[in-house]
Specification:
Elements lengths: L12 H25 L4 H12 L6 H4 L8 H10 L7 H18 L2 H21 L4 H13 L14 H4 L4 H21 L4 H6 L1 H9 L3
């Protein structure tokens, strides 16, 4: 995927929050898909992993590869969240759990520092092997396990037990969750707050209209 932006995001707080939140729910959706089928949409997967590995993007748009359709899975989930389509309750649970974990993480300065160090190491691996190489995915999964997974609040992934035990599947699931945390932090940095999802739903719906 190209890191060069090809589609300027609307320069409004609501639009940027919508795109960041779409990344959270795209991660949640892919976790559910991996756990149930063992497969994921390649474009959606690469968008999440690239965003997590690139800790210093050249622009906001570069985070998700330059076009909102790279976050289409997450945008569709947000459409459901604001009431336009039927929502998958498991995906919504994963998404809101990621937001909760992000809030715990951002108030833990020591863990934030450790996370930053580990992601710098992962970035070096990605430059050598390629962003979606299994060594990189394994390191992202390990990073999640050694940081976010140590909180008392954890995400329990539902799915096919035989699939969840196959080679690289735990790492892929944790890498997706790590991507969800990355986008959750981005959402908070752009002014996103849980209460806004309740009291500013109209602004979120209007922002989503820009990406239909």
């Amino acid at each position: 995927m190209s890191a060069t932006p090809i589609h300027r995001a609307p320069d409004t707080p609501a639009a940027r929050q919508a795109l960041a939140l779409a990344g959270v729910f795209q991660a949640a959706s892919l976790v559910d898909e991996l756990a149930r089928t063992g497969q994921v949409d390649t474009r959606a997967w690469e968008t999440l992993i690239n965003a997590t590995v690139d800790t210093n993007p050249e622009s906001f748009e570069a985070i998700y590869g330059g076009h909102p359709n790279n976050l289409r899975r997450g945008l569709d989930t947000l459409e459901a969240l604001v009431g336009r389509k039927q929502a998958n309750p498991v995906v919504l649970r994963y998404g809101f759990s990621l937001l909760l974990l992000m809030n715990k993480l951002r108030t833990d300065r020591q863990m934030m520092d450790v996370l930053g160090q580990k992601l710098t190491h992962v970035q070096g691996q990605a430059e050598h092997f390629g962003t979606t190489h299994e060594n990189v995915i394994a390191s992202l999964g390990e990073t999640y396990q050694e940081t976010i997974s140590t909180f008392k609040t954890r995400i329990v992934v539902q799915g096919d037990p035989s699939l969840l035990q196959t080679r690289m599947m735990p790492e892929r699931v944790r890498a997706c969750l790590m991507a969800g945390i990355r986008f959750a932090l981005l959402w908070h940095q752009q002014g996103g707050r849980r209460w806004k999802l309740v009291f500013q739903r109209k602004a979120l719906r209007q922002a989503l209209d820009n990406f239909s």
